[in-house]
Amino acid sequence: VEDRRGEATTLNNIGGVYSDLGEKQTALDYYNQALPLFRAVGDREGEANTLTNMASLQRSQGELTEALVNM
Question: Which CATH superfamily is domain 4-70 in?
Answer without folding.
Answer: Tetratricopeptide repeat domain (1.25.40.10)
